[in-house]
Amino acid sequence: MIYKSTSEQVVQFAPEWWFSFVRNFHINDKANQAKHLTTVVVLVIIAFMTVYFITIDGRDSEIINKKTTTISFDKEEINLGLIEPDCEAKVDFEFENAGAEMLNIYDVVPSCGCTDVDYVKKPIRPGRNGTITVVYNGEDVGYFFKTIKVYANIESRVVNLTIKGTVRENE
Which domain holds residue 77? Predict the structure, then answer.
């Protein structure tokens, strides 16, 4: 339905019952006001719950529906020591699928844009090994501590890997 005013057309954006509800909300009867207010609160709660359940992270739903396995890293923290400024430091995190199910790594997320990652995108069979390669771009001088989150079909859902070191000053 289109409502016409004297100078322009406005497209109806809500059902007719909503307009009657809003028009009647100013009633002086306290019982009716409380009833209308309760209805509004319930509708708002339902709307927020709907939006929340629609926007649940897809990564979580994938992991919940899959069988879990065990991932075993040789090291979960690597100290890169002193590195030169504007130099890329590359390190490999070696791991094994130590469980009985296929290992699916859904995502590997570094804590900032100065760190790039590369990882195996295919499922890994039980007993097989894989590598997550991390490249740190040492632009900022000084100490650094970076976290890399590995999302997989493991019981804890996420493993935190870390790299740390110091970028020396230019001489």
Answer: 69-167
In a domain, 108, yes or no: yes
Residue-by-residue DSSP string for 23-58: HGGG-S-HHHHHHHHHHHHHHHHHHHHHHHHHTS-H
Number of C-beta neighbours around residue 56 at 10 A: 10
Q: DSSP states of 94-150 as a string?
A: EEEE-SSS-B-EEEEEESSTTEEEEE--S-B-TT-EEEEEEEEE--S-EEEEEEEEE
SS3 27: coil
Whether pTM > 0.70 for this model: the answer is no
Amino acid 153 reads N
Q: Is residue 60 part of a domain?
A: no
8 Å CB contact between 148 and 136 = no
What's the rounded Cα separation, in Å, for the pair 119 and 122?
Answer: 9
pLDDT by 10-residue block (mean), the chain, 171 residues: 47 61 62 75 83 59 67 94 90 94 93 92 94 91 94 91 91 69
DSSP tag of 86: T
What is the total count of domains within the chain?
2
How far apart (Å, rounded) are the C-alpha atoms in residues 95 and 159?
A: 11
